[in-house]
Specification:
Layout lengths: L1 E5 L6 H10 L3 E6 L2 H9 L3 E4 L5 H7 L7 E4 L16 H20 L3 E7 L28 H16 L4 E7 L1 E3 L15 E3 L5 E2 L1 E3 H14 L4 E5 L5 E2 H12 L4 E3 L1 H7 L1 H9 L7 H7 L8 H4 L6
Parallel strand pairs: 1-2, 1-4, 2-3, 4-5, 5-6, 6-11, 7-10, 8-13
Antiparallel strand pairs: 9-12
Helix pairs in contact: 1-6, 4-5, 8-9
Length: 305
């Protein structure tokens, strides 16, 4: 397929571009700057100079361009704000960016559209020991500082599923780890503060596995469906922090819970209050995808895959 990709230079976008090309797909990648366009070139994709948040400029840049599918992987997660508001940059990309990219999909004649979602859209709270499926209610608010994130994810999925001109899939990824993420195992990468006590348990996925699953969803995903893209073992934030430190050969940054809430309240709700497990059975059954890295220790290279 000929694929228009938004977010090609991000943590998942880079391995996704390579995975798409390895699968025989041609990639057109949005690039806001000359620097981004240069990175897109090195990945073997064709840059399209446009900003997804500039509707008119985006449509001008795509005039005369054709594509079979659009994939939305735009976020702004590298430097989380201390507090979250409705105009959080990632929410703007999930809401206005999704709207603009859906219009772009119609302009280029794309019949398929995949959007990045997150399992955290089930709500920042304790969900107990049961593994949730895609049939469980999505977008349950916890009355805390993270509700804005939930709103952004619900809006992105809702706008996609309400669009009548594309066959859309929402990919509810676990928390990313691997190169270019908060939990980058490369030596010298910056440590992310994690709870001293271990914190909450959440689903995870290595960015290379996330990329492979996205290609599978492009090729096999059913219209109007959401899929959990997660590894096989939910883990605590403390476990990921320890594994990242061991892999990178450095010390971790562990904070008591009260300090984490004080420094970044959003991370307190995410890392301390959220206990979430989800099943990846639907993706295995319908997409034929299972993670190469079964858990974070294999993904960090601390034991054989």
């Amino acid at each position: 397929m000929r694929v228009l990709l938004a977010g090609a230079t991000g943590a998942i976008g880079r391995p996704l571009t390579r995975a798409l090309r390895d699968g025989g797909h041609q990639v057109l990648a949005l690039a806001r700057t000359d620097r981004s366009a240069a990175v897109v070139h090195t990945l073997g994709a064709q840059p399209v100079r446009a900003d997804a948040l500039d509707r008119d400029g985006l449509l001008r840049a795509l005039h005369g361009v054709s594509a079979d599918a659009v994939i939305h992987q735009l976020t702004a997660l590298k430097a989380p704000r201390r507090t979250l508001t409705a105009d959080d940059p990632s929410n703007v990309l999930r809401e206005r960016g999704t709207t603009n990219l859906l219009e772009a999909a119609e302009a280029v004649g794309a019949a398929r559209f995949l959007t990045q979602s997150l399992v955290l859209g089930y709500g920042y709270r304790d969900h107990g020991e049961r593994f949730l499926t895609e049939e469980d209610p999505f977008g349950v608010y916890g009355g805390n500082v993270a509700d804005h994130v939930v709103t952004g994810l619900v809006e992105a999925e809702g706008r996609l599923f309400e669009a009548g001109h594309v066959a859309g899939c929402a990919l509810r990824y676990g928390v990313f780890y691997g190169p270019g993420t908060w939990f980058d195992p490369m030596p010298g990468s910056r440590a992310v503060p994690v709870p001293r006590s271990g914190g909450g348990t959440v689903p995870w996925v290595h960015v290379e596995d996330a990329a492979a699953a996205t290609v599978a969803a492009l090729e096999k995903g059913r219209a109007g469906e959401a899929y959990h893209i997660v590894d096989e073992r939910p883990s605590t934030w403390g476990e990921l922090g320890a594994a990242r430190s061991a892999a990178a050969g450095g010390r971790g940054l562990r904070l008591p819970g009260w300090a984490l809430r004080l420094v970044v309240p959003y991370l307190g709700a995410l890392m301390l209050d959220t206990h979430l497990r989800v099943s990846g059975a639907k993706a295995a059954r319908e997409l034929g995808w299972t993670p190469r890295y079964r858990d974070h220790r294999t993904g960090m290279g601390l034991r054989p895959a």
